[in-house]
């Protein structure tokens, strides 16, 4: 069996065509991948906050006592702290902390909060033993460095119901 000289490899033209096709696919794919990464960061941050709020509500019902949720390190942009006010003094004391959720604001994430329609930097709410919210309804908006309808919003009603919305308008 003899092998013809023509079937022993690739020609330069074939190789150049493959490289050109790879360049085109990469040019199209990289911006989409960046968008996917930014969307996943927003979703992960929103899910972290939802988890903390659902944990606080479940703990309030389980313990039959009020569970507090407050912003971390002076602002909701840093995350949330869930704690149980064991001695009833309304302040966080050593040993009362149940869970901390930190947000990665270094990745361009912008977080803002409002309670009963008023914008606030520091959030402080409580869940009653029945799972309802003490301190009014709350809204947390998460945006990144993009303009447009890319944000996410968490709405916590006074009943304790938590809703997550996508496609919230953000300004850069």
Automatic annotation (TrEMBL):
Gene3D superfamilies the record matches: minor pseudopilin epsh domain
Ranges that cross the membrane: 12-33
Keywords: Cell inner membrane, Cell membrane, Membrane, Methylation, Transmembrane, Transmembrane helix
Domain General secretion pathway GspH: 45-160
Tagged with keyword Zinc-finger: no
Topological category with respect to the lipid bilayer: Single-pass membrane protein
Subcellular location: Cell inner membrane
Top-level taxon of origin: Bacteria
InterPro entries named among the record's database cross-references: N_methyl_site, Pilin-like, T2SS_GspH
Pfam families: GspH, N_methyl
UniProt family annotation: Belongs to the GSP H family.
Protein name per its UniProtKB record: Type II secretion system protein H
Taxonomic lineage: Bacteria, Pseudomonadati, Pseudomonadota, Gammaproteobacteria, Cellvibrionales
């Amino acid at each position: 069996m003899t092998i013809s000289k023509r079937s022993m490899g690739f020609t330069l033209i074939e190789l150049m065509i493959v490289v050109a096709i790879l360049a085109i696919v990469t040019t199209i794919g990289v911006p989409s991948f960046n968008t996917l990464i930014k969307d996943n960061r927003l979703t992960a941050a929103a899910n972290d906050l939802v988890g903390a709020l659902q944990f606080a509500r479940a703990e309030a019902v389980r313990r039959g006592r009020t569970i507090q949720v407050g912003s971390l390190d002076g602002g909701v942009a840093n995350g949330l702290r869930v704690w149980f006010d064991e001695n009833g003094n309304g302040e966080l004391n050593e040993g009362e902390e149940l869970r901390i959720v930190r947000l990665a604001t270094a990745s361009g994430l912008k977080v803002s909060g409002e309670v009963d329609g008023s914008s606030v930097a520091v959030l402080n709410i409580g869940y009653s033993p029945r799972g309802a919210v003490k301190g009014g309804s709350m809204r947390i908006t998460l945006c990144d460095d993009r303009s447009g309808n890319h944000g996410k919003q968490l709405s916590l009603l006074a009943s304790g119901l938590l809703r997550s919305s996508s496609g919230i308008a953000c300004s850069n």
